[in-house]
Design brief:
Residues 97-195 form the P-type ATPase A domain. The structure is a single chain. This protein is an alpha/beta fold and 785 residues long. The protein has an 8-stranded mixed β-sheet, with helices on both faces. The protein is elongated. Helix 4 (62-94) runs parallel beside helix 9 (256-275) and helix 25 (654-684) runs antiparallel to helix 26. The protein contains 30 helices and 21 strands. A hairpin with a 2-residue loop joins strand 12 and strand 13.
Amino acid sequence: MSFSDTGLSSDEVRRRIEAGQVNRTDRFTKRTISAIIRNNILTLFVAILTAAVGALLLIGAYDDAVVLGAVTAANILAGIIGELRAKRALDQLAILIRRKITVIRNGSEETIWLDEVVKDDLVVLRSGDPVIADGVIAESSGLFLDESLLTGEADLIAKHNGDPVLSGSYCVWGEGRYFAAGVGVASNAGALTAQAKTYKIFRSPLERAIGQIIRVLIAIMILLSFLIVMANYIQDLPVVASILEIATMIKALVPEGLVLVTTTAFALGAFRSARRHVLVQKLNAVESISHLTVLCLDKTGTLGTNRLIFDGLEVLDATHGDVADQLQAFVGAVREKNETLRTIEAVFPGIPSNLIDELPFSSKTKLSAVQILYRDEEVSLWLGAPESLMQGRAAKAQEDKLAGLRRSGLRVLAFARSQASLKQRGDLNILAFIILRDELRPNVRETVSFFGTRGIKLKILSGDHPETVAAIAMQAGLNVADPVYVGADLDLLTPDEFKTAVMRGQIFGRLVPQQKQKIVKYLQETGEFVGMVGDGINDILALKQADIGIAMKSGAAAALDIADIVLLKNTFAHLPTLAREGDRIIYNIKRVAKLFLTKNVYSLFFVLFSGFVGLPFPLSPRFITWIDLLTVGTPAFLLTLMSAHVPKQTVNDFLRETLGFSLIAGLIIALVSLIVYTDFFLWQNPMANYDKTAALSIVILMGLYIVYYVTPVERKSDSSLMQKAVVWAILAVGLILNVLAVYWGRLSGFIGLVALDAVSWFIIIAAAVVGSIAFHILLKSFRGI
């Protein structure tokens, strides 16, 4: 196929857009509105509750069916709204990490968004630009690409007219143009990114713990449904009674509210993070940060700003003329300057020189060179990593000097001279060490200290020289006492030796992408919860492998696509804030789970009591809904919104803590309320629903006490006035509404309550107080619950 060097016309672009040949993949907040709605409606809980509503309609219990249906719809709607709000905020932030690309259209350059590129576009490629689509080189001017993400090889690849290029590579030298043949998911990187996004399904520790609880409750619900049917059959009770009891039991045991508030908490965490310029691309990522046991960092992009600062010139050999003058000649001769050379140029401006030959910088050889005519003499000037240039040529004093500089956390380049051509190299004379240092990001030391206090092990996985990495790590506050490992040495280790190195080592240098991924994977296999912070294409494999991948906004596009979290301000210091937000999510879900599970426990005892004793079931679907509204659902939702300061949280004992609390609370509430229910049913007042009203009132009074018990942080003297007000409002409004429900005719008639006399209230309040005291004493006797 032939292409035009003037690029596509506007009409050709329009036709390709209509054909869907656009460079778009499923990036950033990949959940669509339809997916959010579908995932909130098509759930097991909704199916069970819908079946219960249908059964109530069949037996003519229309009021109960309406209430249960309304509650189910409200839960669905609340979940959808919460996720849509989070999606909107994240979509707005996602715009900030979109990249712009230069293309040739209608014969002139245009700057467009990356996802506006269409098939057959003529794309301009300059130093630092990513290749965003598969294609063919149309024009090359000294073009060199880094394809390490695609092949694992660190060599720079020269590209000439007609050569193929693949998305995911980067231009590091020269410039050129290429025709975009494969765009979007049809491109190499687009397909890989889409696959990574699609198949990386990860449930956080909190989600897994809640999933265990839900499976147990569903199993109990199925068993109890069978027992209710059998008990009613034996007692020759009507089918209507069985359906009503099963519907009530389902409403009591199905924890749809727990799932809702968990999703709400995750969405709220993402929303709060967005306000701090953090893009959360996976809702459970904020909570997951709190579980980190190991955090791996790429030194260049996380501890440093990716900017170099010139620190000095250490002249080693002045016998070959003015070293500074020769360095300026070298700078002036290099045609394409990378960041390192630009840093040097700021201090030693280039001077014109006659260039004879040039060896561009290679990430594999770690050096570059020029052959020039310097003062009427052909010389070769070399700049690169000392280990690449010295190779036994340096005196011991020079080696000692180099070691001392690196221990101080400095980057060192060797500057050398030879009389031979670039191909022959010849005997190199090391003229000087050029000393550079990395600029640390703000608040790095404070952030490192924060993770240290949380017991999180930090490991540096870098492509830089290990001694330089170790020195920078020490500047950042890491205690580098363990061995420092080099990537090449890791490949020589046996599997057992490699495992030992990974567990002992804290600093790993000269790593290739596959080695970073291998280290992260082994840490996971040993039970560690691993986070990876990176920004380059050499970090993408480790970012994808890690439990939590975190990227900087300034990083490579592929890294941003894979990462679960993107730090839009490029600051490592945001991670402690995210960890604290994760602690709040876990803390809030823990206490919300206690409220829901307490209701499940006493509901379970009610079912067992009714089945074995033979008395009518003390609650109805409308009673359960009323209890939910006053003591579980509304308080749980409001507590989820709280942002109080809490200590570091863990879910290691989530089941023991929540189930232990709920068993004690649920047992006490069931015991006290059933005693009063039985007393009223048999002896106090035989009026219809008098006994059930008494039992309901005790459940609500003790339920409100449970709410009081799980809000110690908000009731502390140093908490905000708003937090105190919310807690006391929950308690006060709950009491007032329940009294209204007992005495206000319309409300009491709808729920099914009757008015209570003063003596009955005395018995109810006394029983609730005794039960609350018993709960408090019993709970204190079990430490850790």
